[in-house]
Amino acid sequence: MRPAPGARGFAAVVLASALLAGCAAGSADPRDRTARSAKNPTHTTEPYRHWGLSAPLPAPPSPPARRPPRPAEGPLPVVHRVDTHRKVVFLTYDDGAEKDPRFVDMVRELRLPVSMFLTDSVVGPGYGHFARLRSVGASIQNHTLDHAALRGLPYAGQRAEICGQQNKLRARFGIRPRLFRPPYGTYDTTTLRAAAHCGVTAVVLWRAAMEGDGELTYAKGPARLRPGDIVSVPSGEPAGLSLRERTTRLLREIQRQGLTVGRLEDYL
């Protein structure tokens, strides 16, 4: 039986609509898809390229089964580098002045185990940014309330600076950090006593620093990265490279030396 004329017309309309829809979907401009991917880099299959690296960072080797115990007596350990043969270095960021949301994306996509040493007066109202960093794997550590040079200050003043920031971080994040970095890397025996009283288990300095101009400088030893090095990345000057740019340069140098990034808190 032949279909009625009206039925044939209706079927033709349906078929034409389907063909037009298919053609529209298939003829979408590939540049539109590229633009969407650029706006949403988390969907890329190679995020390391988005952040300026030529290869992915190797996964860090397994950390020690146990951290070194804190001495029952005597001063706190002061650490410039970790004594390890594992091919890792440790990235530490000071102060908290730069709050670029794309740095959060970078830490998340590259799975960077970074340590943020925060100063309350520098962070100001920006603790929400560091809560986001913590949610993607960064650790939060102590860098005093007001970034005062501690050496030579009386015990009460040093204790107020260190314990005060411990209390701030506990109120903000529910944690009391174990690690402390004195501003400018200056300290004395009073600093070590005050830090111990505040619950700190190690004072963390650095052997290498990535300055605002993107150059690596070294405090002691050979002018190259070695396993166990602690690298400081201070907040940059307004005219200097951004935190993301300095981190990219640093990661390229880490890869060039055959190293990767480890989590400092697993070793101290």
Q: Roughly how many Å apart are the termini?
A: 86 Å
Q: SSE order in H/E notation?
A: HHHEEHEHHEHEHEEEEHE
Q: Report the major sheet.
A: 7 strands, mixed
Report the mean per-residue pLDDT as an integer.
85
Gyration radius, in Å:
26 Å
What do these coordinates show?
- This protein is an alpha/beta fold and 268 residues long.
- It has one domain: Glycoside hydrolase/deacetylase (TIM Barrel), CATH 3.20.20.370.
- The strands form 2 sheets. Strands 2, 3, 4, 7, 8, 9 and 10 form a 7-stranded mixed β-sheet that branches. It has a 3-stranded parallel β-sheet with strand order 1-6-5, covered by helices on one side.
- The protein is built from 9 helices and 10 strands.
- The termini are far apart.
- 31% of the residues are buried.
Topology (SSEs and partners):
Blueprint: H1 5-26, H2 30-39, H3 47-50, E1 78-79, E2 88-95, H4 101-110, E3 115-118, H5 120-123, H6 127-135, E4 139-142, H7 155-173, E5 179-180, H8 189-197, E6 202-204, E7 208-210, E8 216-218, E9 230-233, H9 243-256, E10 260-261
Parallel strand pairs: 1-6, 2-3, 2-9, 2-10, 3-4, 5-6, 7-9
Antiparallel strand pairs: 7-8
Helix pairs in contact: 7-8
